[in-house]
Design goal:
Blueprint: E1 8-12, H1 17-26, E2 30-36, H2 41-45, E3 51-55, H3 61-70, E4 73-75, H4 79-85, E5 96-97, H5 103-108, H6 110-119, E6 127-128, E7 138-142, E8 152-154, H7 157-164, E9 173-177, E10 182-190, E11 197-209, H8 218-223, E12 230-238, H9 245-259, E13 269-277, E14 283-289, H10 304-309, H11 316-329
Parallel strand pairs: 1-2, 1-4, 2-3, 4-5
Antiparallel strand pairs: 6-9, 7-8, 7-9, 10-11, 10-13, 11-12, 13-14
Helix pairs in contact: 1-11
Bound molecules: adenosine monophosphate (2 copies).
Length: 338
Amino acid sequence: MGKIKDYRIATLGSHTALQILKGAHDEGFKTICICEKGSERPYQSYGVADEIISVDSFKDYFKIEPQLIKKKAILIPHGSFVAHVGASKAKEIKAMHYGARGILEWEADREKQREWLVKAGIKVPKIIKSPKEIDRTVIIKFHGAKGGQGYFLANNERQFKERIKEFPDNDGYVIQEYIVGVPVYTHYFYSKLTGELEIMGFDKRYESNADSIGRIAAKDQVDANIHTTYTIVGNSSLVVRESLLPGMFEMGDQVVAASKKLVDGGLFGPFCLEGVIDPELNYYVFEISARIVAGTNPYIEGSPYTALKYKEPMSTGRRLARDIKMAIEGDQLKKILG
Ligand code: AMP
Ligand code: AMP
């Protein structure tokens, strides 16, 4: 039987690192945090890292990778890995790392994401093929836009033409139907070891300035020429109407089943469906993340949903570490490494 003391859990110091490293400690692992110089303080202050490796930039990950390999560290890729090192680079990771190989490329490409969701039978917002066809409120999303920065809204072709002028150097965009409703982000965990799909919780994003615009009168918004932006600042916790849960479990199953045709062995571990629920209770999904999302951070002590299932506080970070622990102790580590 493998022993967890022979391994370490490592991640980049941003996004969900506090939660991942704390969860690893709770399951008995030693931890390593890779920090950009000057960003070490939270990981020291909260005592979650047994070791810190500092780099000038996360892009230098591959320079320190030999140290991780030597220490038998298992890397957990998260949103900052995708944003700062790159989803395509995930395939070049030589250190042990959690998650299905190649799956991050599916989340990094909007067209691939959509193909996955549609194949899974999930409702997605309509795509408007050309500005001429704008017949409703639409959201324009640039390729490579990070964290909702630089999106804009338009109601017709004229508005589109006016607003696109502000982005002369854009590298392409998609025009999507804007769904009026409440944003709901559903956090899942699917374990290959237990074969079970769990809903870990939900969050709602707090975005600037979309979530603050209502603090001033509509007339002031117009006078100040404010355009809606969606830069993520933080997340708040949410529980959903209980009658929505059966459908949400089904959506998770469908996404996992569809992923088996995309990458070898299919998606496993934490993932998230990100969308808006309209007044008819349709859940339109505009994005899928195939790894832990930062919206799980409010639940370091567990969510109302994990409290139903577990006797101890269970964050998504800890659930990840538990999966790794089960794999090590059951000599099935290969099953969960990318
Ligand atoms: P950062 O390391 O803060 O630059 O985050 C990397 C990427 O992860 C960002 O580009 C965001 O898309 C995403 N992200 C970071 N923090 C959050 C959060 N609290 N909620 C949702 N997404 C986030
Ligand atoms: P994303 O980068 O795709 O996660 O989108 C950032 C934010 O834009 C989301 O959290 C939503 O608030 C908003 N958003 C994106 N797409 C839509 C849509 N089709 N309808 C309504 N809101 C959207």
